[in-house]
Amino acid sequence: MKICYLIQTHKNIEQIYRLVKVIKHSSPQSYIYIIHSPTKFKLTQEQFSEFNDIQITNIKTQLGDFSLTQGYFDCIEFLVKHNIDFDWLINLSGQDYPTQPLLKIEKFLQNTSYDAFAEYFDALSPQNPWQIGLGRQRYFYHYWRASQELTNWQKILIKPIKNLVNASPLKVKIETSYALAIGKELKHTPFHQKYICYGGSYFVTLSKKCVMYLYEVFSTNKYLIQHYKQTSQAEESLIQTILVNSDLFRILNNNHRYVDFKGSKYGHPRILTTQDYDALLNKEIHFARKFDIHQDTKILDLLDKLICR
């Protein structure tokens, strides 16, 4: 059993190193592929030279656009073209952390009858966990996007205009979660009654056969991929849309991740602390996010005792 971990990072070298260290010490045979957005600093192979089977790529990513999703498929392409052996692909952010021993997770994956663990739902269903209309706004519009993220005060200034435009009958939407984005509604999309637009968390655990199917679709279905490249937050739809519509895989609608958006702003989950420790003991949770060692490092110390026991 060999797991490949895709870790997408953008800050805090100490925390990135700590995550890599706990993975490699707990699962030495694992492969780690890091995509780092070097807005604050670059990562080098030398910084992780004590570990084997680790690949570092520095490339700028911007939340909201296709770059995060592109990174996921760049990782898959690298694995395929370099004949990297793996059984499962698990994607994490640099602020994720395991909540139980990796060997236990690997044994679970080795024995499972499922092909994937991923949250998914009909993006247009009124019962989905998103705000009403958000799925249509994201994936049935094509967007022009500014190159820089908005500051919080810029978001506040733009909010009245955004609310006015988005509530109007105009077939235009404004998004300000990350960079300013202006979208125009499409007359035609890849979606129809037999090809549903699905949404769900970007963080998934996929078997190799799911990964290879994603690679095939990404390489051949240019219409679908080009459509998603112009949408908003494609990472929360494309993987689910491809896999669930295929009807080829057993997918459990549970990604075994813990995240808490309670009290969060601008789509960012709450920082987890020692006060969340009891919640993280749930055996259904494999990984949690997000953590920040500058706010609370003790929670990671407590998790290390669980992971390394």
TrEMBL record:
Assigned keywords, A-Z:
Disulfide bond, Endoplasmic reticulum, Glycoprotein, Glycosyltransferase, Golgi apparatus, Membrane, Metal-binding, Signal-anchor, Transferase, Transmembrane, Transmembrane helix
Q: Output the superkingdom of the source species.
A: Bacteria
BP GO annotations: chondroitin sulfate proteoglycan biosynthetic process; heparan sulfate proteoglycan biosynthetic process
State the annotated membrane topology for this chain.
Single-pass type II membrane protein
Q: Name one GO molecular function term.
A: protein xylosyltransferase activity
- Quote any Pfam family the record assigns: Branch
InterPro entries given in the database record? Glyco_trans_14 (IPR003406), XYLT (IPR043538)
**GO CC, alphabetical:** membrane
The residue stretches assigned to a coiled coil in this entry are none
Localization recorded for this chain is: Endoplasmic reticulum membrane; Golgi apparatus membrane
* Annotated protein name in UniProt: Peptide O-xylosyltransferase
Its organism's taxonomic lineage begins at: Bacteria, Bacillati, Cyanobacteriota, Cyanophyceae, Nostocales
